[in-house]
Structures are given as structure tokens and as C-alpha cells.
Amino acid sequence: MQQFYNIKFKFNAAHSMSDITGKHPHTFSCIVLISKDANVYTPFFEYENHIKKYFNQYRGQYLNEHSRFKSILPTLENMADVFFKDIEKILTDEPHFTILRLELGDSPTRVVSVERDFFVGTTLYNYTEEDLQKIKNYRLMKNSNVKTV
Prior knowledge:
Elements: E1 2-15, E2 24-37, H1 44-56, H2 76-90, E3 97-107, E4 110-115, E5 119-120, E6 123-124, H3 129-142, E7 147-148
Parallel strand pairs: 4-7
Antiparallel strand pairs: 1-2, 2-3, 3-4, 5-6
């Protein structure tokens, strides 16, 4: 059986897309969906704190000058991809946690989603049919554009 956690984070930062838009601030909101093996006790708050520390590095920063965005433009889409991959690395030392989805918004009306692709080649991750149905139901409920990684 799997348990699912939606963890919400907010941080203020600035970025620019070009000389036309110039440097401008946002309050970014991020929701991270993580699955956990329900049969194994793991102190979840420890991993939540690791993720919180990860986002703290961006607070009050000009993202275009941050080391993670030196080689790519910090668009909402690129930021979501970077955050997803980085959080995935944070969770690699705990086999019972898996990041499934990350939603990142720079306004209440603009949100991008990055979601794990559950199939790698022909190998299905270790989910039961019931777990996959829960995930499908969650996707339907969210009703947003999804990008798979």
C-alpha cells in the first residue's frame, strides 16, 4: 500500500526572461506530491525538512544568477524540471519515498506540472493496480497540463 503526501512550499525570488521583461519578482508556490510505502515507518518530517532547505536556497535570490540556472533560462517550465530532478536526488537515499509530481506557480492562475513517467521501458514501478488507480484518479482530479520526465 502507498501513502501520498502533498507538501506545499512558497518562496519569493526574481527572474527575467529577456531584456524586454526585465528583472521582476514573484511569490512562487510549489506543491510536491510524494508517495511512501505505508508498510515501512520512516520519519517523513526529516525529508520534508531536506526539501524545505532545498527551496530556502532560492529565497530572495535573482534566479538568473543562481548556479542552477547559469546555463538555462529560469522559465517556470525549466524551474519545475530542475526542482523535480533535484528533489528526486534528495530522496534517493530513502527507497520508500518517490516524487511523483511537482507543481510550480508564479501566480494563482499560472501553474506548470512535471510528473514522473510510471513506465520505464516495459518495467512498471512496484505499484499495485489499486495504487495505479489512485494515481489515475488524482490526475483526473487535478485537471491541468502535465509534462512527463
